[in-house]
Amino acid sequence: MTAPNTEPIERRVVGQNVWLGRGASESPAAAAAVAGLEAREYAYEVLETEEAVGRAQLEELRRLGREKEGDISFILLGGRGAQAMYRLLGRLAEGTEEDALLGRLNVFTQDALAPMRMDNGLSFVRDFERLLGPAFFRKVKSFTPMRTDTDDLEAGLTSYIEKLESVGGIDIFFLGLGPEPEEASHLAYIKPGSGAAAGDIAGVIPISSSILEHHINKFKVGGSHVTAEDEAECRAATHILTLGPAAILSARRVVQSVVDASTAPAKRASYRRVLETELSADPSERAAQLDRNPGLWLRLHPNVRSLILPDVLEA
Q: What's the alpha-carbon Rg for the chain, to the nearest Å?
């Protein structure tokens, strides 16, 4: 267990975006300069099926369970990217084969729409419960979602950060890649132009009607039970809670998956741009590149495994 961080969590405002972090008063350029991180080539693995991606993700947890003593903390990925793994985990939780591993897991979510009831059918929490099943949540050591049912979203997010830090930080961060205009991309919900800096652990950012529409349609297609009340409340959401660059960069391992390029074809160009962009050595220009295209933050992480299906590389 790492010693608790005694620095206060500071609040940094960029336009309508609020970022929380230790030393978050740094400007994006200063944070990028202080980080001094090496820009890396982006290796990827092509697997033939979504099921194979799920098995590879599960093996990441199993491998860590063999190599590390004590608890394991990991970040759940919403959307399609880890659904195959969740189904595998759910089936395993119904038996006893992996009970020792499950009992060591501290499980966290990475983003959320707010304000919204925690039991709304369009929340990621309900989707995780549907995919992973009740046995999984009974057996894990802890489950910590971002609170979306509070009048003070920033205070709730601060408590979430403190809980994440109290268990020793992130062992595995499961991430996807979201397409954005002009072949840009987002990680978690770090959006282009949101001003996220290397010291920002989490943020509260405004939501657009197009994101809400995409989110609702995705959940309906995915089989979630959604009532009229759920949908109305979701359409009234005003913000997204998200983990920030500092959470990603501090994770000991990042496992990315992109499995839905067939239904979200814009991901192909976004992924290719992450692969091909040359990151500037100039701190100010690098900070601008990261803000324009947050998917590039993974190019600064030393321990990334990117799992994709063959169609991601199609023209």
A: 18
CA distance 165 to 167: 5
Total domains in the fold of the chain: 1
Per residue in 164-210, pLDDT (tens digit) is: 999 999 999 999 999 999 999 999 999 999 999 999 999 999 998 77
3 in any annotated domain: no
Residue 194 forms part of a structural domain? yes
Its pTM surpasses 0.90: yes
For residue 113, give the nearest of 252, 245, 238, 297 by alpha carbon. Answer: 238
Burial 13-52 (b: 16+ CB within 10 A, else e): ebeebbbbbbbbebebbbbbbebebeeeebebeebeebeb
Separation CA 54–CA 131 (nearest Å) = 13
Residue 14: inside a domain: yes
Helix axes 283-292, 28-35, angle to 10 degrees: 110
Residue range(s) defining the domain that contains residue 199: 10-33+41-177+184-310
Q: What is the mean pLDDT of residues 81-97?
A: 96
Q: Is 86 exposed, middle or buried (0-12, 13-18, 19+ CB in 10 A)?
A: buried
How many other β-carbons are positioned within 10 Å of the β-carbon of residue 276?
9
124 with 157: CB under 8 angstroms?
no
What CATH number does the domain containing 207 carry?
Answer: 3.40.50.1360
Residue with tokens 């190019």: 299
